[in-house]
Write a structure and sequence with these properties.
This protein has 655 residues and is α/β, with parallel strands linked by helices. Helix content is 56%, strand content 10%. GO terms for molecular function: glycosyltransferase activity.
Length: 655
């Protein structure tokens, strides 16, 4: 029978233990030694060199408004909100809610379909500053965030800067479901901050430049090659087009093009965000796991820049993707140690296993020590974090076998909401108009059956009360109808006057230099013009010049203007010969044509409005007649005499 010596078990145990925990010890030391880059005394970059791009799907909501307000406190030069075309109007309304003094800093753009990469690419060409900052629509910034993010850019070698992140905490009962989900999300961000700070200190590697808040040099993102690769990235030999993993792609682009990245871990640039506080958090974990699989495999086996540029990060971050799940790794270590200690004294074997278990517990606790210091009550949930760490192995395996699934959860949720709203809107359009509120039936009415055989006498209005209500409705309709008649009458007069506007006046321009020749010549011309006025008729086309106003034409041309009524059959005055008079006459005719177009358009609008008012008036009068008929029926006064002389009345059938 095949057997393995205890020494072989011990060797396997030591190898696996070192592989797993050398990384932990080095990260612990590196995190303790890490320091953010301090603010420079005389910075070359300020907030005026920053444009913030904010992709958002819905373009509205309290979280988005809070995000915009916190960003504007940092005074960037511009904030560009990018949403989808269907929600552009909502996004513009959100921008309009901001203080008026900030409106010149805000702008809205849109793309046809939900796609974060397309939204980012749409806004990048619009940027005119040296630095671009991407932010999610559910984050809040401290007031000094931009200053700390700009500090590393004083070194020209740095191309990207990311910040530390915390969960925006909400208070729930200690063992409530929402408290547990929020606790798990907070620990995820805490571990992420720990790993990013450690790898940044060791070799400058950042596992992922998280898109929650990240800054890049504009010249990097304006590269045409970057834009093409960013919007056309595919995975698994070009089989699957990626709309997700935008932050992972840019992180790899920084590494492959020789740009350094840095993480600013400081309370004054600590960005707060929100995560799901319900079972949807598991879906987020699945998406993050898929991103890690795709991005880390691409980094290690396709691009391979990390092996030479960031070797420690390759070991501490990327290789963990291929490591067995935590539950299998922990169980394997315990089993190997137990097998290796079978030849040891029993007490020594037990002591070794207990020591290993304590070490595992410390390693799982210490990464999140900062969270437990800030919130000591969460230590009661420590076992939950350990069990979830083991359960996360199953999530990791599930993500591995579903890598072809693109994580577009927001887009799917948006489309699902859209379908539900369409169904509800259709139901609302088909509702019974006699109902006071559609779908708001009480449980008693729903249980009463098809014919509603319940006692409703207590809630039924009296006959007189209904008659009073209908009388009030009739009075309101009469008031509206009277107001409508006045409006129609006035508009009809305007339309008639516009169509039947009579003949007018023709404007003649007297050359300025001739006017200055003397009073005699001027008097003769005025006399001649007066005679023409007395003998001339009117002309419709020339009246429109008068509508422009002779004073306006004179002020524009600088010439003297005489208004003359000239009949179309009368002799026209001699055409001016000077260039100045000709130019003035051409300007006047151009204004004449423009005024004619405006008058024609105004007439069309008035006619259309008149037709709409008449249609509304007919509907109101029909409603008033129907209401009068109902009132007459209630008063039992509807009737008449037929051809045979028999009197008749309308009565409602008794039920």
């Amino acid at each position: 029978m095949f057997s393995v010596a205890p020494l072989s078990y011990l060797s396997c145990f030591i190898g696996l233990f070192l592989y797993r925990y050398v990384r932990y010890v080095v990260n612990l030391v590196a995190f303790s030694c890490f320091r953010p880059i301090p603010l420079p005394e005389k910075p070359s970059l300020t907030s005026d060199d920053v444009t913030v791009i904010l992709p958002s799907l819905e373009g509205r909501g309290m979280e988005l408004e809070h995000t915009i307000e916190s960003i504007l406190q940092n005074e960037p030069k511009e904030l560009i909100l990018v949403t989808i075309q269907a929600n552009l109007e909502l996004a513009q309304k959100t921008i309009a809610k901001m203080p008026a003094s900030q409106h010149d800093r805000l702008r809205c753009l849109s793309v046809p379909n939900p796609n974060k990469r397309r939204q980012m690419a749409r806004a990048i060409p619009e940027v005119n500053t040296k630095i671009i900052v991407f932010a999610d629509d559910d984050v809040s910034w401290p007031r000094q965030t931009l200053k700390w993010m700009l500090a590393p850019f004083e070194n020209e070698k740095y191309g990207g800067v990311v910040t530390c992140q915390r969960l925006r905490r909400k208070e729930y009962p200690i063992f409530s479901q929402k408290r547990i989900w929020s606790f798990l999300g907070a620990l995820y961000l805490e571990r992420r901050n720990f790993d990013c700070a450690a790898t940044t200190f060791m070799d400058g590697g950042v596992p992922c430049m998280s898109g929650r808040t990240v800054a890049y040099r504009t010249k990097i993102l304006r590269d045409k090659n970057f834009t093409y690769e960013f919007t056309n990235e595919a995975w698994w030999f070009g089989k699957y087009r990626l709309n997700a993993d935008d932050d992972n792609f840019i992180t790899r682009w920084m590494v492959s093009h020789g740009w350094k990245t840095y993480m600013q871990y400081h309370p004054e640039c600590e960005v707060q965000t929100i995560l799901e506080d319900n079972p949807k958090y598991l879906k987020q974990c699945v998406r993050w796991s898929r991103s890690n699989w795709r991005s880390n495999l691409t980094s290690m086996f396709t691009e391979r820049h990390i092996w030479s540029g960031q070797p420690y990060s390759a070991y501490a971050v990327h290789l963990t993707t291929l490591s067995p799940p935590a539950f299998i790794g922990d169980s394997t270590l315990v089993w190997l140690l137990w097998k290796a200690g079978q030849t040891w004294p029993e007490e020594q074997q037990h002591l070794a296993i207990y020591s290993l278990l304590v070490w595992m517990f410390i390693s799982k606790f210490s990464k999140n020590l900062g969270h437990y210091i800030r919130y000591p009550s969460d230590t009661a949930l420590l076992p939950v974090s350990i069990f979830f760490g083991w359960f996360h192995g199953l999530i990791k395996l599930y993500a591995m076998v579903t890598l072809d699934v693109d994580y577009s959860l927001r887009a799917r949720d948006y489309n699902l909401k859209k379908q539900k709203l369409a169904i509800l809107s259709q139901k609302a359009r088909n509702r019974n108009e006699d109902e006071f509120a559609f779908g708001m039936l009480s449980a008693n009415k729903a249980q009463a059956g098809k014919h509603g055989r319940v006692d409703t006498q207590a809630n039924r209005l009296s006959h007189d009360a209904v008659k009073l209500l209908k009388t009030q409705d009739a009075g309101y309709l009469r008031t509206v109808a009277g107001r409508g008649r006045k409006e129609i009458s006035k508009l009809e007069q305007d339309v008639v006057m516009t169509k039947a506007s009579g003949n007018g006046r023709k404007v003649l321009f007297v050359e300025e230099d001739e006017r200055l020749n003397g009073t005699k010549g001027r008097a003769e011309k005025r006399k001649k013009l007066s005679n023409e006025v007395a003998a001339a008729g009117n002309n419709q086309e020339e009246q429109e010049v008068t509508s422009l106003g002779t004073e306006n034409i004179a002020s524009v041309t600088g010439t003297t203007v005489y208004a003359i009524d000239i009949d179309s059959s009368s002799t026209k005055p001699t055409a001016p010969t000077s260039k100045k008079a000709l130019a003035a006459q051409r300007d006047a005719m151009r204004d004449l044509r423009a005024a004619r177009k405006r008058r024609k358009r105004l007439a069309e609008l008035r006619v259309a409005k008149l037709e709409a008012l008449k249609k509304r008036q007919r509907e109101i009068m029909a409603a008033a007649d129907e209401l009068e008929l109902q009132r007459a029926k209630m008063a039992r006064t509807v009737g008449g005499v037929n051809k045979d002389g028999i009197k008749w009345k309308i009565r409602e059938r008794k039920r």
